[in-house]
Write a structure and sequence with these properties.
The protein is mainly beta. The protein has 2 domains: 100 residues; 116 residues, Sandwich (Immunoglobulin-like).
Length: 266
């Protein structure tokens, strides 16, 4: 017999619960329950239940002398912001055999996101990345999913020096990664301050998670970029007046030639 057995899930905040069923328990063909706001669900309310029966030797109607529980847990609803109900992504959790441990942490059938790199594409000078105010730099965020379920998630970026939100486009770029997949999120970065700056980007995890890192994620910092003043177009301020003066001079000269030609003809 066993009592006080429970399942532990990674979500519970924001009124988000997991619904599951168990088939194969003694005297309970199908049992259904949900987790609470702490992600806990006690099987049969924690009451004692039979998991093994040894029949007496004079039992003639049972083929096996010992009956052991082989119960299967099927997750019916396990949704987060990474696999919303209206998406084409499946429930997390899957199905598994209910063991005899008192507490069972359901940490399979979920995603596990990790950073690989955060690269900024720009010019270099003596090994240092450089850019001008006004430039829109391509950024490549590479991530992988080491888990066993897909996830659709976004990232956000701040300036490393101040913690202020960085000006990137789109503001919260996203990607969908299947189990075992890796991919690259491409976006643009603009900066308005002269000096050295880098990006600090983070995976935006579901608010339903009890622990922020239950599905992985975390932060990563890019290499530093030196931002300089925006250069004016090669002498454009001085060239334009000269061009205007030249055009006016040509017009005046042309008119003078026409007048002289008219005088000769007369």
């Amino acid at each position: 017999r066993i009592s006080g057995q429970f399942l532990k899930f990674d979500i519970g905040n924001d009124a988000s619960f997991v619904t599951y069923e168990i088939v194969g328990m003694f005297n309970y063909p199908t049992y259904t329950n949900s987790s609470d706001y702490e992600g806990i669900s006690f099987i049969m309310g924690g009451k004692e239940r039979v998991i093994e029966i040894a029949w007496s030797e004079d039992n003639t109607w049972e083929e096996n002398k010992i009956w052991k529980e082989v119960a299967i847990v099927n997750i019916l609803s396990y949704r987060t912001a990474w696999n919303p109900k209206l998406s084409d992504l499946e429930n997390y959790g899957g199905s598994f055999i209910l063991g005899t441990d008192l507490g069972i942490h359901v940490d399979w059938g979920i995603p596990k996101i990790e950073w690989e790199s955060l690269e900024i594409n720009t010019s270099t000078d003596n090994g240092k990345k450089i850019a001008q105010i006004g430039d829109s730099l391509p950024v490549y965020a590479k991530l992988k999913n080491l888990g066993s379920a897909p996830a659709r998630f976004s990232i956000g970026c701040n300036l490393s020096s101040s913690g202020e939100q960085a000006v990137i486009s789109p503001s919260f770029p996203h990607i969908t990664l299947g189990a075992g997949e890796e991919g690259i999120i491409e976006f643009k970065w603009r900066n308005s301050q002269i000096g050295n700056e880098s990006l600090e980007c983070r995976v935006l995890t579901p608010t339903q998670l009890i622990e922020d890192d239950a599905f992985g994620g975390g932060e990563i910092t890019s290499s530093e970029v030196t931002w300089g003043e925006e250069e004016e177009e090669i002498g454009l301020t001085y060239i334009m007046p000269a061009i205007v003066a030249l055009v006016v001079g040509i017009i005046i000269y042309g008119r003078q030639l026409i007048k002289e030609a008219s005088s000769i003809n007369d």
